[in-house]
Amino acid sequence: MIPNHLAVVPVNLYQQAAIHAMVLVEQKKEQGKSVAQFPFAKAFFRVLNEGRSQVKANDIRLIASNYDPRERHKPSINCYIAALDELIESNGQHCPLPLPYDTGELLFPSYGLFCRNRRHRKGDLDIERQSRRRTREEQQKHRRYQNRLAQAEIELAFVTPTTIGSWYAYWQRQDIYIEDLSESVMAWCERFPCLVERSLDDLQGNALWRILYEIQFIRDELTDAERSFNDWLIPNKLRDNRGRTVHVS
Predict the structure, then answer these.
(1) Which residue of 34, 131, 139, 230 shows the fewest CB atoms closer than 10 Å?
(2) Chain-centre distance of CA 121, in angstroms?
(3) Distance between CA 20 and CA 39 in Å, rounded?
């Protein structure tokens, strides 16, 4: 069974009267006949009232429950007739004041359904756009974080047990989870015999501050010869992505 809101046959007297009124006015225009003021609205009420041409207050209340002729300084009957005429002529697309917003759906339920579906679709599209924007922002945030982390690891390659304290002091303030650097620091320790000999492997899995504390303790015991040897173990130049040599002091 076809739902009422999708039916081709009018589903209520008001929709039927509106469609009939549109046909009558268009026929007059095609025949070259003149039409009176507000022809669609007046034809609508004639169809609805079985030929009666006079529009009464009760007729207006049938399509506009907010109309009350007893209230002064309110829109007149003619204002409602003019608004109804525009509503019918636009095939339900314009429902001007003083008509209630639901008058359009009363006379043109299929257009009301179309508008609701369009609003729902627009809402779905808005949610989808917001989701894509959040995903994009999260991806950008993740890339920025990975770039900072990579930069910290690059700079780690150019420090010694003597200077790692300055490196740590800087990077702990750069919105990096220090735990992410622990594995890199443990790998860095293997480059220096003075650290390997102290069995720092036993600190694997410890907090970074604990590892650095042990390195500081070892650093304080290094001889001048060991410090000089450590300096020779770090690279003193890099090549950038265009192959140019960049010296590191």
Answers:
(1) 34
(2) 14
(3) 12
Smallest CA-to-CA distance from 177 within 204, 208, 143 is with 208
Neighbours of 120 (CB within 10 A): 10
What DSSP string describes 156-195?
HTT--TTTHHHHHHHHTTSS--THHHHHHHHHHHTT-HHH
pLDDT band at 4 (very low <50, low <70, confident <90, very high): very low
Q: Give the burial class of 108: count Cβ atoms within 10 A of its Cβ; 0-12 exposed, 13-18 middle, 19 or more buried.
A: buried
Q: Are 108 and 15 in contact (CB under 8 A)?
A: yes
Task: Name the pTM for this structure.
Answer: 0.46
Beta bridge partners, 245, equal 239
C-alpha 116/C-alpha 99 separation (Å) is 19
- Give the number of other Cβ atoms within 10 Å of residue 34's Cβ: 7
Residue 79 gets which letter from DSSP? H
Cα three-residue angle 192-195-200, rounded to 5 degrees: 130
| CA triple 71-74-78, angle to 5 deg | 115
Tens digit of each residue's pLDDT (9 = 90 or more) over 171-208 = 888 888 888 888 888 888 888 888 877 766 666 767 88
Quote the CA–CA distance of 200 and 203 in Å, as a whole number: 5
SS3 content of the chain, % helix, strand, coil (to 5): 60, 0, 35
The answer to whether 107 and 18 are in contact (CB under 8 A) is: yes
Comparing CA positions, the residue from 166, 165, 174 lying closest to residue 146 is 174
Integer Cα distance of 89 and 85 in angstroms: 6
Helix (H) or strand (E) holding 111: helix 109-156
